[in-house]
């Protein structure tokens, strides 16, 4: 069922810092090759440099993995099957050879094995035109239900960001800005939307997480803006998003295909720029997550 990698198992039993990672972002459904491999390596390296152990989540040979050995990275990178939280219970009987876990699946896995901190690029959210499609990413419910602190650069602006924040409020998820008062929009630092809380350092973020734990509440969403040097131009990115959404409508794409479709549209339209921005923010989030995990393990 859930197979915990040796290094992750040792770290957890010693009470050391561990950071979970999703795998959809590193698979064929996320970043293009070879940027996907670079992203994975940069995240793993930065987590280790900060003194934590990375736990890449994925599905391999029908098993749910928390911590993937280096030899198996290749299979995760090549994976094309999206595994969300609701799919996890089915991978065993399907004997799914390879699956890429989304944020929702990874948060469930992390909670099940006792990992308290998770890092990604951007989370899913409430989609635009939700009143027609009903499309709300299960990432949001997973964060609400599981006691895991999630570090992300906000959510991509192709989503409905005000509704995403509204939904998180309904689900009692604290949204905490990392050195910011505003919700970041992934490629850009500021969506203009306020977040209810702000922290300046890893210790304060750890304190919020520990209080949630004591209260028996669910997860926390910490949002960190992309480093300023790698931010994209908001006007340009919004134009590209509109184009990509129109294409989606014309081709009647819906359900789990929506996010990968828009992501690849953005990639093509911004050439390499969006990819290097993505690498930068993913690494940045992984570093912050590791610092927080270290603080939590020291308490
Ligand atoms: N947003 C991104 N990059 C991604 C994803 C979201 O900027 O790779 C992936 C994540 O794995 C996230 C999933 O959990 O898409 C959300 O998919 P959906 O909208 O179908 O819930
Ligand atoms: Mn969806």
Description:
The chain has 299 residues and is of the alpha/beta class. It has one domain: Indigoidine synthase domain (Indigoidine synthase fold, 3-Layer(aba) Sandwich), CATH 3.40.1790. The chain has 12 helices and 11 strands. Strands 1, 2, 3, 4, 5, 6, 7, 8, 9, 10 and 11 form an 11-stranded mixed β-sheet that branches. β5, α4 and β6 form a beta-alpha-beta unit. α5 runs parallel beside α7 and α10 crosses α11. The radius of gyration is 18 Å and the shape is globular. The mean pLDDT is 96. Pseudouridine-5'-monophosphate binds next to α5, α7 and α11.
Q: Secondary structure elements and their pairing?
A:
Elements: E1 2-4, H1 6-13, E2 18-21, H2 35-49, E3 53-60, E4 63-66, H3 73-77, E5 82-83, H4 91-94, E6 98-101, H5 103-113, E7 117-119, H6 130-133, H7 138-145, E8 149-152, H8 161-170, E9 175-178, E10 197-199, H9 202-215, E11 220-223, H10 234-250, H11 258-269, H12 273-298
Parallel strand pairs: 1-4, 2-3, 2-7, 5-6, 7-8, 8-11, 9-10, 9-11
Antiparallel strand pairs: 3-4, 3-6
Helix pairs in contact: 2-12, 5-7, 9-12, 10-11
Manganese (II) ion (MN) binds at residues 135, 137, 256, 258.
């Amino acid at each position: 069922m859930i197979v915990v990698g040796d290094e992750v198992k040792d770290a957890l039993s010693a009470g050391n810092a561990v950071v979970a990672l999703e795998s959809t972002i590193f698979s064929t459904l996320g970043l293009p090759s070879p940027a996907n491999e670079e992203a994975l390596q940069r995240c793993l390296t930065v987590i280790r440099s900060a003194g934590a152990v990375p736990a890449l989540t994925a599905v391999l040979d029908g098993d749910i993995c928390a911590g993937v050995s280096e030899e198996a990275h290749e299979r995760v990178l090549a994976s094309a099957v999206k595994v969300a939280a609701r799919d996890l219970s089915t991978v065993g009987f399907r004997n799914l050879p390879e699956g890429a876990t989304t944020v929702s699946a990874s948060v469930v896995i992390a909670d099940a094995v006792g990992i308290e901190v998770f890092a990604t690029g951007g989370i899913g959210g409430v989609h635009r035109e939700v009143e027609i499609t009903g499309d709300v990413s299960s990432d949001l419910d997973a964060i609400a239900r599981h006691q895991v602190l999630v570090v992300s650069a906000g959510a991509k602006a192709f989503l409905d960001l005000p509704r995403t924040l509204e939904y998180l409020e309904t689900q009692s998820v604290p949204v905490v800005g990392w050195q910011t008062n505003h919700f970041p929009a992934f490629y850009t630092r500021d969506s203009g939307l306020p977040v209810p809380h702000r922290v300046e350092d890893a210790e304060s973020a750890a304190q919020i997480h520990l209080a949630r734990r004591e209260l028996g509440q669910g997860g926390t969403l910490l949002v960190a803006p992309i480093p300023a040097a790698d931010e994209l131009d908001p006007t340009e990115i919004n134009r590209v998003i509109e184009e990509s959404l129109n294409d989606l409508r014309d081709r009647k794409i819906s359900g789990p295909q929506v996010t990968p479709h828009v992501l690849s549209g953005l990639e093509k339209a911004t050439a390499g720029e969006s990819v290097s921005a993505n690498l930068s923010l993913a690494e940045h989030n992984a570093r912050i997550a590791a610092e927080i995990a270290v603080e939590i393990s020291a308490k």
